Amino acid sequence: MNMVWLLLILTAIVAAGYTGKMEETMKASFDSAKAAVNLAIGLIGVMALWLGLMRIAEKGGLMKMTARAIRPVAVRLFPDVPPGHPAMSAMIMNISANAIGLANAATPLGIKAMMELDKLNKEKGTATNAMCLFLAINTSNVALLPTGVMGVRAAAGASNPAAIILPTFLATLCSTIVAIFAARLLSRGSVNPSVVESEREAAGKGGEDPAEATRYYGLRSKADRVAGEYESFRGIQTATVEPDGATLEITLETALDDEHVTAVPETTEPDDLAYYAIDEGGVRVPVEFVPTDEGMDCYYKRWRLHGR
C-alpha cells in the first residue's frame, strides 16, 4: 500500500511539472492538508458525544441483545462451525459491535474469530468457507447506527447528519445479502468438511462417545462448571455467571455501579478455565476461574471473587 501511495504522489508531481501547474498543485495540497486538520478537530466533539452515547447503550445491554438476535441466524449461516465453539461467539460479538458502531471493540473480536476459525481449518494456509463468508459479512456489515459517518457529516456542516441512518441501513442490508449469496454461490464447488463431523465419525468408528471425543462439546460443560454466584471480600463486589452456549454472561454489581460482560473461552480445552472479555474501550480483559478447596474463585480486573 505504501508503494501505491508513493506512485500516486510521484505521478501527480510529474504530471504537474509537465503541464506547468506545479504552483496550483502545491497550493491544492496545502489547502487539502489544512482542511483535513480542521475536519479532524471538528470531529472530536461529535465523536465523543456519539461514542459516549453508544457506551451507555452498551452498558444497558444493547450489544448483548443484538448478539442474541444474531445468534440463530449465525448458526444457520455457518454450519461448519460448532454452535458452542469460541469462533461462533467471537463472530457474533464482532458483527454486533460493528452493527451498533463500536468499531474499536469489533476489531479484536474479528481477529479472534479468524484465529479460532483457523483452528477448525484442516488445510492451513487455505481459507475455509466459513472464513470467506465471515470476511464478506464483516466487510459489508449491516449498520444500524453509522456513528462514524454521522460524525463526519456533522463536522462538515451537514444540516441533518442523521438523515443517512435509514439509507445506510438499507444499503448495508442489501450489500450483506449480496455478500452472503456470493459467498455461498462460490463455495458450492469447494469441499470443506467440518472438523467436528470428522472427529465424530472417527469416534463412532472407534466405539467412543462422540461428545467425549470431540473437544468442542466440552466447552458447554466447562461453562456449566464455572457458572454460579460469586462475591468479593465482605460482599463489596458480586458477580452472577450464567452460561450461554460456550460463552459466559457475567453481571457484576457494586453499590455504585453495574457491569455486564460476555466472556469467551481462550481455548477449546475443557480443563482450561481461562476466558476473556472486551471492555467498553475495546480492550481485551482476562477472566480467569481457579478451582479451590472451597469451590471456585473468579479473577476479573482487580477483583478476586469467591464462589458462594
Topology:
Blueprint lengths: L1 H18 L2 H38 L2 H16 L8 H14 L3 H17 L9 H11 L7 H9 L9 H23 L7 H11 L4 H4 L4 H9 L1 E4 L6 E7 L2 E7 L4 E8 L8 E5 L5 E8 L4 E5 L2 E5 L1
Antiparallel strand pairs: 1-2, 1-8, 2-3, 3-4, 4-5, 5-6, 6-7, 7-8
Helix pairs in contact: 1-2, 2-7, 3-4, 4-5, 6-8
Question: How would you characterize the overall build of this protein?
Answer:
This protein is of the alpha+beta class. It has 2 domains: 143 residues, no CATH class; 90 residues, Pab87 octamerisation domain (Lipocalin), CATH 2.40.128. 55% of the residues lie in helices and 16% in strands. The chain has 11 helices and 8 strands. Strands 1-2-3-4-5-6-7-8 form an 8-stranded antiparallel β-barrel. Strand 7 and strand 8 form a beta hairpin. Helix 1 runs antiparallel to helix 2 and helix 2 packs across helix 7. It is globular and about 80 Å long. The relative contact order is 0.10. The mean pLDDT is 79.
Briefly characterize the structure:
The protein has 308 residues and is an alpha+beta fold. The protein is built from 11 helices and 8 strands.
